[in-house]
Specification:
Number of domains: 2
Radius of gyration: 23 Å
Shape: elongated
CATH class of the largest domain: Alpha Beta
Largest sheet: 5 strands, parallel
CATH topology of the largest domain: Alpha/beta knot
CATH superfamily of the largest domain: SPOUT methyltransferase, trefoil knot domain
Bound molecules: ligand 4H7
Mean pLDDT: 95
CATH architecture of the largest domain: 3-Layer(aba) Sandwich
Oligomer: single chain
Length: about 270
């Protein structure tokens, strides 16, 4: 999959692309990210990309001209990389005003041949450019950061994990697992006793049925306690409802001391 990133800070791309899962994916040519700097498409000797907003709000905005030229250049590079499929590459603008990014949208975007990611700096970009050149405005969450680069790279990472081959055979499972709409169950590794706290007994029981059931219960309980909004968008099966009810009863009995009921070695 091909990504074009329109950014005033192209150096930010290389750092993220140099490590871990995305680095491996780009070594295997499953992924490539090209940075395009709108400053290179300016005419004046100061290479100006910003100007004061009309109406007199504080700060500066990115001017539409250099961004339009950078997006056009991105489209050409997409064509060089993808051929005719480049006409189907959407322009995504990362902004706090965008549609919330969730795993469903990540998976949908991962089916595209490429994406052009527009990264705003200053107080954002001229709205005419957004209307003329942007296909989807996307937000990675309800908070603000200083530029669109970290949100864009977050999107690249999340999408990369959905591409066939990137995670080996876990690929689609990993990508889809968050679509089941539940939070992860708690996980434990060695040592078996840490800080006086033992790993939950069931996990060392060897009873795979009981383990699976416990994990399902914990995922339901955590989601209920921490993100009830996620359960509102999902119907529970009869089995799940029973598990959640049982887990909640236990949780109440234990006096809300924590969700996982780790056993202290002295208990
Ligand atoms: C576009 C418009 C995305 C891009 C405004 C971008 C959060 C997200 C930016 C802004 C982003 C997200 C400029 C608004 C700087 C905040 C202090 C870049 N922040 N900014 N202001 N949630 N910032 O996806």
């Amino acid at each position: 999959m091909w990504f074009g990133m329109v950014t005033l800070f192209p150096e930010l791309v290389a750092s993220v692309m140099s490590w871990g899962v995305v680095a491996r994916a780009s070594e295997q040519n499953l992924l490539s990210v090209e940075a395009i700097n709108p400053r290179q498409f300016t005419q004046d000797k100061h290479a100006t990309v910003d100007a004061k907003p009309y109406g007199g709000s504080p700060g500066m905005l990115m001017q539409p001209g250099p961004l339009a030229a950078a997006i056009a250049d991105s489209r050409q590079r997409a064509t060089a990389a993808l051929g005719p499929a480049a006409s189907d590459v959407p322009v995504i603008y990362l902004s706090p005003q965008g549609r919330s990014l969730d795993q469903g949208l990540v998976q949908e975007l991962s089916t595209k041949a490429g994406l052009i990611l527009l990264c705003g700096r200053y107080e954002g970009v001229d709205e005419r450019l957004v209307r003329e050149a942007v296909d989807i405005e996307v937000s990675v969450g309800d908070y603000v950061v200083s530029g669109g680069e970290l949100p864009a790279l977050t999107l690249v990472d999340a999408v990369a994990r959905c591409l066939p081959g990137v995670l080996g055979n876990r690929a689609s499972i990993e990508c889809e697992s968050h679509l089941d709409g539940l939070l992860d169950y708690p996980q434990y590794t060695r040592p078996e006793i840490y800080g006086g706290v033992r790993v939950p007994k069931v996990l060392v029981s060897g009873d795979h049925g009981a383990i699976e059931r416990w994990q399902a219960e914990q995922a339901l309980l955590r989601t209920w306690l921490r993100r009830p909004d996620l359960l509102a968008h999902r119907t529970l099966s009869t089995q799940e409802r029973a598990w959640l009810t049982a887990a909640l009863t236990l949780h109440e009995e234990k006096g809300h001391e924590g969700e996982q009921h780790e056993e202290n070695v002295n208990d």
